[in-house]
Amino acid sequence: AEGLVERGFEGVTVIEGEDHVLPRALDPDMAAGLEDRIRDRGVDLRTGVRVRAVRTEGAEKVVALPEGEVRADFVLLATGVRPRVELARAAGLEIGPTGGVAVDPFLRTRDPSVYAVGDCMETWERVTGQRHPVLPMLASHTNRSGRLVARNIHHGPRFEYPGTCLPFGIELFGLTVATCGLTGALAERWGLDTVAVRSRGVLAKPQLGGSRVEIKVRALRATGRVVGVQAVGGPGTARLVDRAILAVGEGVPPHRLSLTETVYSPTLNVAYDAFTQAVDRLLLAGGWF
Ligand SMILES: Cc1cc2nc3c(=O)[nH]c(=O)nc-3n(C[C@H](O)[C@H](O)[C@H](O)COP(=O)(O)OP(=O)(O)OC[C@H]3O[C@@H](n4cnc5c(N)ncnc54)[C@H](O)[C@@H]3O)c2cc1C
Predict the structure, then answer these.
(1) Given this model, what pLDDT does residue 72 score?
(2) Which pairing describes strands 226-233 and 194-202: parallel, antiparallel, or unpaired?
(3) Which residue in 53, 136, 219, 240 has a CA-CA distance of 20 to 30 Å to 271?
(4) What contacts 6, CB < 8 A, 6 or more positions away?
(5) Are 251 and 188 in contact (CB under 8 A)?
(6) Domains of the chain, residue spans
(7) Is the ipTM of this complex over 0.90?
């Protein structure tokens, strides 16, 4: 949609079946600002609407909705991806509950002479300590799993894959979305009781051009372990979440996070950075101070 708007197309419509945009990455409250931005740029964004059918009428495509229809010059479908595992299944390899090829910690399939990497491979999250099976299908994890398998093939299976922190990032209409770990919906699906706080901050001093960022941090109620970070903001937002990923993946306790310094100079950051401020709010909300 952004590409079409930038190229001067009018009447761009986005139809999203879930009740908010980027549902795998963002909670509804964190998606709200992004949705405002998308609409402000002239896109007719409709959430919570499921497409019934698409048909051709003359030169037009007609998208049938539960109520009414949208007529368009063309329709672009983007409804998700899933691995094609027919070959793996036919070869007798195990397919995991997420639909990816199941692997052991060395990324070997059920046949130890066959490894699986990348989008087709089921992995596990390293965020909760419970290793839920997941299928990230993203390049950051794919690159690392591929390199690890190369080492295991070369040296013999001795390097274990730690699992994924579920990182995600995208730039849309001038806003950066960067996240890792669990959304509220995923935590609920896994039956995890979590505490989450939202916080607003800046990525450098505003008078020196620093942009704003909104952050949400989620922790397990029982232990305080940080299991999810969502951030929407200006340039620098991804860097902030990259820092969070290490903490989330390694299970760094929040009170340690709160005392972990960042690089500071007025044009680069603020001395007490936005992520640390959000973690402090979390500590208060969870009663861990
Ligand atoms: C439009 C788009 C945008 C994306 N943007 C991002 C992003 O911003 N950030 C991010 O983290 N991830 C992104 N991804 C996901 C990322 O590209 C994938 O996670 C990554 O490429 C997966 O790597 P892979 O090696 O597992 O599979 P692929 O990159 O899909 O490589 C598999 C290769 O196998 C080949 N192949 C298939 N079948 C056979 C066969 N029978 N014999 C021989 N070769 C075969 C294919 O041609 C292909 O070249 C994006 C994906 C898409 C489609």
Answers:
(1) 97
(2) unpaired
(3) 219
(4) none
(5) no
(6) 2-72, 86-155, 169-286
(7) yes
**Average pLDDT in the 121-139 region?**
97
Q: Is the pLDDT reported for residue 136 higher than 90?
A: yes
The tokens for 45 are 């964004």
- Residue 155: pLDDT band by 50, 70, 90 thresholds? very high
Task: Give residue 142 CA to ligand 1 midpoint distance, Å.
Answer: 9
Which atom from ligand 1 is nearest to the alpha carbon of 138? 19
Q: What is the mean pLDDT of residues 261-285?
A: 94
* Domain 86-155 part of CATH 3.50.50.60: yes
C-alpha 119 to ligand 1 mean position (Å): 7
Directed axis angle between helix 237-250 and helix 274-286, to 10°? 40
Query: Any alpha helices (H) in 62-204, and if so which ranges?
Result: 86-90, 139-155, 184-189
Rounded to the nearest angstrom, the distance between the alpha carbon of 146 and the centre of ligand 1 is 12
CA of 116 to the centre of ligand 1 (A): 14
**The pLDDT of residue 209:** 84
Residue 171, ligand 1, Cβ within 6 A: no
Q: Is the CB of 122 under 6 A from ligand 1?
A: no
Q: What are 198-222's pLDDT values in tens digits?
A: 999 999 888 888 899 999 999 999 9
Residue 56, token pair as written in the block? 């051709």
Q: How far apart are CA 274 and CA 268, in angstroms?
A: 12
Evaluate: CB of 142 within 6 angstroms of ligand 1. Answer: yes
- Pocket of ligand 1 contains residue 172 by CB under 6 Å: no
Burial class (CB in 10 A: 0-12, 13-18, 19+), 32: middle
Q: Which CATH architecture best describes the domain 2-72?
A: 3-Layer(bba) Sandwich (3.50)
